[in-house]
Amino acid sequence: MNFLNEIALRFPDAVSFAPGRPYEGFFDTGLVHDYLRRFERYLREEKGFDEAQVRRTLLQYGRTKGIVHELIARHLELDEGVTADPESIVVTVGCQEAMFLTLRALRADERDVLLAVSPAYVGITGAARLVDMPVLEVPAGPRGVDLEALARVARTAREQGLRPRACYLVPDFSNPLGTSLDLATRRELLKVAEREDLLLLEDNPYGYFSADGERLPTLKSLDTGRRVVYLGSFAKTGLPGARIGYVVADQPVADREGRVGLLADQLSKIKSMLTVNTSPLAQAVIGGKLLAHGCDLRSANERETEVYAGNLRRLLEGLARHFPPGCGSGVTWNVPRGGFFLVVNVPFAADEALLEVSARDHGVLWTPMRFFGRGDGADRQIRLSYSLVTPAQIDVGLERFAALVARRVGEGVACAAP
Amino acid sequence: MNFLNEIALRFPDAVSFAPGRPYEGFFDTGLVHDYLRRFERYLREEKGFDEAQVRRTLLQYGRTKGIVHELIARHLELDEGVTADPESIVVTVGCQEAMFLTLRALRADERDVLLAVSPAYVGITGAARLVDMPVLEVPAGPRGVDLEALARVARTAREQGLRPRACYLVPDFSNPLGTSLDLATRRELLKVAEREDLLLLEDNPYGYFSADGERLPTLKSLDTGRRVVYLGSFAKTGLPGARIGYVVADQPVADREGRVGLLADQLSKIKSMLTVNTSPLAQAVIGGKLLAHGCDLRSANERETEVYAGNLRRLLEGLARHFPPGCGSGVTWNVPRGGFFLVVNVPFAADEALLEVSARDHGVLWTPMRFFGRGDGADRQIRLSYSLVTPAQIDVGLERFAALVARRVGEGVACAAP
């Protein structure tokens, strides 16, 4: 992603469909103060803490597994129908630390491998690289995960003496594809995981941002066999600047002495050697936001959800206007039902060189799908992110993108104009 | 350390000389709000940011290397006489993440090993375990580091086909010993590091807490050959609840393509896969505190320094009263010139079993030195931490400790009473 950051710095006036950052229009630093005070009140009134305990909780070193675990459990019950033991929750420095902790715990030696639905979020491949854990790609296919391929990859790995430990995926409005697994696929996936003895690492940063109001149950809420390690993030639903994520790891595991405990406690031990504990001040900000909204993140994000849905509609309308069927541009795209991303297929190589041309000559940035894996067709695919742009930027950005396409496809394609 | 935490929970009324946590008497949650506002003002007035930029800096995803690097550079110039390029600073989630990043960068394969002055802070051995990097112990000896042993350990490792990459130490008021390297030893250590081609990982959480006002130059300030990677922490001088540390890594290093850059940029790449970035909100709290004190942490910590110095005096006086020379108790101790810790030598095994007895029957907690390494004599050594206790607790705690000693040493030692 360094290439993307560099190019964004070099062309600051380009319209950027690249970053998967949340909308900034409702940012308000005053709320941070309100949230901190709200969390202090909770410590006093709900937890019965005296002033010294309140100060110690916010300002001193703290519990390795975190201090907002009970509020997260409330939120999961309310928003997800997931009943999680607060002791099974580890509050982390963003979801990225949760991924690292989980992979580090699952990796005992060089035989342990991770499966990941591909194209995959770069954060998981990065974390896997840090713990020296190879990643075997499982194609997403038309259903969001190719279940036959999943079983095949796991079995082939076992035949080679490897130990496939888990499969990572984003079932809701995935990054980078924007697609979601339907309910039947979710249920089947849980069965395949059971049969192949795999954990599922369910990453859900975008699930609240449904564009049409429909929300499918998370894998974790369908999970009766503790197959799912649930990776949560408040970067999109809370505040990115707090850097608070978490992991629900309610799997029973034995330690070296054979004592059975929660996977969460193994993650906690690793965390004590990695970051000691997550800033209680940063946790308090998220805790305060949860409390301010009755731990209901769906209602807390109504305005944002509307913005993203509106942007998605505008982007889809713009693509349809610039590249109508039969116009010969060869440009097609998927139609996600929510989230931050969609994918455009183009009839030419969409690589770093083209991105450079696009930025320099046309003033528009996007992400080559190649950055997310080696899957078929990725060379001619582009991820467009619509979370951080305004409607006006979407219009201008698409016009510029259409000009890039016209230049590549050739003058013959006259319809690529609005 | 889990055993210590467990025993502290089981005996909440015990006086505890165990935790190395900073004094809580000056904690004030109101200051957090002041610091946040102070940092906002800095962004507006010194950096020239408009309101949208201020909001984005605090609330959005941010720069991987952090946003308080320039203030840290000012502080290092002012308090340490260290001129650090802000680009060589990576702001981390506590010093623990800085250690992890550094070791992960230094560890290319299983031949890379870390040297550490022993007894050593458990954080460094934990981080080394996480990156699968063996730790070779270098005895502290009477000077704080045994320089001949350091060279010998490094050479022996090389003869065995290993690559000793760095030596970790706390030159000022070390954890767990409380001792400091004198100036001559610091200079010689730098020469040995040069000769043996080792980096020095200088960890300095306690340097500001000199009990007699004397402050020796850090290794980094004496380092002309970029041998020192400087590990900084605001947990004791700032606010533990912010979880902000940093590393100055100004060493030139080549990446895989042979391009030379700063070690800090390699650490930044690793950080992007570990925690993405350190909470800008938490950084802003520390940034605000730095600004509120003109980036001078010595003056910012005058009150705390006085508390720690007073506690050290009281502890030393109490030890002298309880265990006067020639009384036959066999109890001796070192006399640190600052910091949080001192070490007591006892004429019996100071292990987990004795700690259990001490907590249950005598109501006093301490840390067996065995937790910090395998060095000679550690079996009969105890770390007493005096940072979190009140003077009254020191008195009561020492009385209880003297009762434990009397029981162990035998009735014959009548002088072990105040």
TrEMBL record, chains A, B:
Alphabetical list of InterPro entries matching this protein: Aminotransferase_I/II_large (IPR004839), Class-I_PLP-dep_aminotransf (IPR050859), PyrdxlP-dep_Trfase (IPR015424), PyrdxlP-dep_Trfase_major (IPR015421), PyrdxlP-dep_Trfase_small (IPR015422)
The Aminotransferase class I/classII large domain, residue ranges: 52-401
Signal peptide: none
GO molecular function: transaminase activity
Keywords: Aminotransferase, Pyridoxal phosphate, Transferase
Cofactor(s) named in the record: pyridoxal 5'-phosphate
PANTHER family linked: AMINOTRANSFERASE, KYNURENINE_ALPHA-AMINOADIPATE AMINOTRANSFERASE, MITOCHONDRIAL
Protein name, as recorded: PLP-dependent aminotransferase family protein
Higher taxonomy: Bacteria, Bacillati, Actinomycetota, Actinomycetes, Kitasatosporales
